[in-house]
């Protein structure tokens, strides 16, 4: 079995029509996608599936935060396919497998299918990371089934670097299997490749090869889009959205997104929106301004003032969903700690609509001494 295996999930995007200047409302309805580990979004219902602290999965309406259903029969959502939520299940004794549970994504989360993916006996299919050990899972749709790829790392917990020539890893392994979503039949795969990305049109590829573009454009339905920096007549830097027809490579009109000095910019988890982050003056609790744009049209959807720079995010209509990492701060002389949450902001007025706790799987315990 391969020691290192490159896996990933590339969200497919589909347009709501052929008019590229029409704002697409909500995440891609071509496929579900992982917003961040433990949270999967699906624009077809719409719904967001998240790991519940203490165990189980909740299905939530992204627009209101209302609970659609909950289940204690699985612990981590991976992918929605054919109306089923593919999920990792808890296991006390792995015994050479890690279990998958398929839940009805629409009708109350009932179990529709079960499957067992084979793993070496030393692999512990954990959900929570431990000291020096982690088990990560990716899933994507392929040929009418679902490919589930796993990666296991286990190292000795030591506070010093290994000696020259000594491997720090006790176990380092990876594998994958294809699961039939109708029968639950599991077929182990000898190797697996990242889902293929469609090639760029030749006109756009030449711009990338010549260094005119600093990154490969994102494919958003019928559009390819990326951002470039240009100088205005006043000498200020502009963030400009460049667009092309995804099939022909013919350029579309450029859109000036803002005239500022942003500290970061990043696409949404489903590659349909763009967040550009700019610093705010002063040293208050709200240190950054998030400006949200459509990657299809360049239309500004709204602005949000927040403490952190660029989190994982997506947009449902006018609702911005984002990961709020655990943090602590002093409020009126008291130290207040905030746990991991999924938060929702109304982009029309910048107010928080709802928030929900998400199971925090990161290891935050003690570390071994360095001496």
Task: Summarize the structure in short.
By secondary structure, this protein is an all-beta fold.
Q: What is the end-to-end distance?
A: 35 Å
Whole-number mean pLDDT: 85
Name the poorly predicted regions: 1-26
- Percent of residues in helical segments? under 10%
- In the CATH scheme, what's the topology name of the largest domain? Thrombin, subunit H
Tell me the fraction of residues in β-strands, as a range: over 45%
Descriptive key words:
371 residues, mainly beta, Thrombin, subunit H, 2 domains, five-stranded antiparallel β-sheet, four-stranded antiparallel β-sheet, globular, disordered N terminus
Task: Describe this entry's structure for a reader.
The chain has 371 residues and is mainly beta. It folds into 2 domains: 33-189, Thrombin, subunit H, CATH 2.40.10; 202-357, no CATH class. It is built from 1 helix and 27 strands. The longest helix is centred in the middle third of the chain and has 8 residues, at 202-209. Mean pLDDT is 85; it is low at 1-26.
Layout of helices and strands, plus pairs?
Elements: E1 33-36, E2 39-42, E3 47-51, E4 57-60, E5 67-71, E6 76-81, E7 84-88, E8 97-104, E9 111-118, E10 133-142, E11 145-155, E12 169-179, E13 186-189, H1 202-209, E14 218-220, E15 223-231, E16 237-245, E17 251-259, E18 264-267, E19 273-279, E20 288-294, E21 300-306, E22 313-316, E23 319-324, E24 327-331, E25 334-338, E26 341-346, E27 351-357
Antiparallel strand pairs: 1-2, 2-3, 3-4, 4-5, 6-7, 7-8, 8-9, 10-11, 11-12, 12-13, 14-15, 15-16, 16-17, 18-19, 19-20, 20-21, 22-23, 23-26, 24-25, 26-27
């Amino acid at each position: 079995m391969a020691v290192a295996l490159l896996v990933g999930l590339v969200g497919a995007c589909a347009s709501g029509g052929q008019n590229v200047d029409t704002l697409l409302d909500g995440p891609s309805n071509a496929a579900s996608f992982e917003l961040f580990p433990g949270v999967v979004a699906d624009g077809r219902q719409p719904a967001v599936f998240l790991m519940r602290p203490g165990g189980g999965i909740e299905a939530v309406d992204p627009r209101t935060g209302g609970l659609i259903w909950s289940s204690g029969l699985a612990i981590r959502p991976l992918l929605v396919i054919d109306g089923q939520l593919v999920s990792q299940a808890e296991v006390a004794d792995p015994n050479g497998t890690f279990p998958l549970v398929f839940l009805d994504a629409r009708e109350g989360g009932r179990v529709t299918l079960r499957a067992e993916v084979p793993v070496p006996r030393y692999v512990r299919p954990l959900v929570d990371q431990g000291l020096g050990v982690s088990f990560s899972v990716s899933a994507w749709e392929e040929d009418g089934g679902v490919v589930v790829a796993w990666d296991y790392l286990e190292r000795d917990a030591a506070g010093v670097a290994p000696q020259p020539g000594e491997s720090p890893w006790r176990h380092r392994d990876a594998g994958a299997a294809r699961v039939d979503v109708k029968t639950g039949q599991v077929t182990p795969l000898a190797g697996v490749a990242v889902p293929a990305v469609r090639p760029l049109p030749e006109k756009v590829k030449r711009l990338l090869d010549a260094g005119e573009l600093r990154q490969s454009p994102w494919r958003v339905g019928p559009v390819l889009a990326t951002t470039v920096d240009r100088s205005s007549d006043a000498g200020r830097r502009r963030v400009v959205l460049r667009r092309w027809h995804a099939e022909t490579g013919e350029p579309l009109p450029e859109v000036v997104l803002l005239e500022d000095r942003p500290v970061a910019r990043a696409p949404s988890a489903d590659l349909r929106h763009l967040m550009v982050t700019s610093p705010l003056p002063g040293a208050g609790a709200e240190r950054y301004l998030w400006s949200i744009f459509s990657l299809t049209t360049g239309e500004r959807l709204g602005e949000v003032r927040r403490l952190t720079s660029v989190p994982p995010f997506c947009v449902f209509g006018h609702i911005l969903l984002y990961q709020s990492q655990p943090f602590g701060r002093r409020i009126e002389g008291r130290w207040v700690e905030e746990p991991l949450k999924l938060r929702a902001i109304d982009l029309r007025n910048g107010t928080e609509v709802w928030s929900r706790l998400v199971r925090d799987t990161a290891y935050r315990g003690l570390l071994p001494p360095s001496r």
